[in-house]
Design brief:
Length: 507
Amino acid sequence: MKKLLFTLTGAGLLAFFLGSSTGASTGPDRAGRPFTYNYENVLGTSLELKVLAGSEAVADKAEAAALAEIDREAKILSAWDSASEFSRWSHGVGRPERLSPELLEVLGLFDQWRERSGGALDASAEAVTRVWKQAAAERRMPAPAELAAAVTAVKGRHWELDTAHGTATHLDRTPLALNSFAKSFIVGRAADAALTTEGVTAAVVNIGGDLVVRGNWTEPVSVADPKSDAENAEPIARLRIRNAAVATSGNYRRGVEIAGRHYSHIVDPRTGQPVDHVISATVVALNAADAGALATTMCVLQPEESKRLAERTPGVEYLLVASDGTRIASSGWKRLQAPGVAMSPVPPPAPAAATWDPAFELAIDLEIARIQDMRARRPYVAVWIEDADKFPVRTVALWFQRPRWLPELRAWYRSDRLRATTEGNDITSSISSATRPPGKYKLKWDGKDNKGNLVKAGKYTVFIEAAREHGTYQIMRHEMDFNGTPQEAQLPGGTEISAASLAYRKM
């Protein structure tokens, strides 16, 4: 059975599984078959789109509709595009301006969530964020006076809405950003646009960890471990999502470094301090904006406050991970979990002399080269390990969109077909992909083969292969001796993979 595995990252930590399962409602059946599309540099992160349709031509129309809606909404809501409607409006002060329904709606939602969260979610938190970024750039801690001034500015009233006349008045110069849930809002609109395409029965849109499922489809979604954020790491929960939104926020992927310490990009606008007591918050909600708003808010609030807020919001379930690793779930979280959600026990290592030291892992970092287009389809990528006999012992990652183009990954395809012949197990049944800041991905190898057994210590070759449909091709290879001595290697970049590094290290 074919299975496509995607890992959701960006603002959040979700592993996103696309494919068949034993549940009848998950498979395509008469609803059509899934077509997947992957892009880099969409809203500053990566896009994964899945469409269920009767033909590729219909799915392509849905893809075009979703991309057009993303572009349209970004031109309205982006805080980073100086030409966006939000940016133009925010540069003016003191006069009412007629705004689009979308921008008015998002500003109204921020007003609602500011009140509902007790000030924990605020578009003007950008004022605090800028203080921390400037201090980090100057290699110092923010001065108390700087933070106090920012917090005072946050407490002010920043706009006034007149929904009857469709206008908004910007009231002060406090910096604003809508990134707390504007991306989630756009994801929801993109999913709706794809679903309204004639002949489409379901759509799943994921941008940077914000995920929406719409239509006749139950999506398996896995929540990734915030303490082990490689794309192929084991998730901490597996869910089944139907006609709902999922968002995850966390404190460990973005932020600033000052004097060797990491400070989260998520700040409490009431205190001016980065938050670290909750390192991951995953929220399932009926709509994308609620999921995104709550995921950020729950990283700021204390768990008991988050519980009360969720109980006042219909259709919301959540999972929090505290800084000490404690997991705190809502009362209905278990109902979302997929059957057999408990992790399977790791098979015991096969008897072997001088096996891989289980205290070590190989970290693999790679960066996909940026091309001229702001938005570009991701190349097909395979990462795998071969032993000294050139036998492929483990496929670490395989990212693709159409199975018919897999032979473009010439070395991987040939090697794994050999492995499939000798073991009778086609490796294309297990496929992984990831969502990160655009083009940057982390993987790991735990020293186990495709059967879950630790390999022997010794020399192995790491392969990274990339290809585009009818386009460029690149392969990188590096031999390492996995003998219990830490080591690192930088691999020279190329056309498709601009940089890659290997680090054999203790976990």
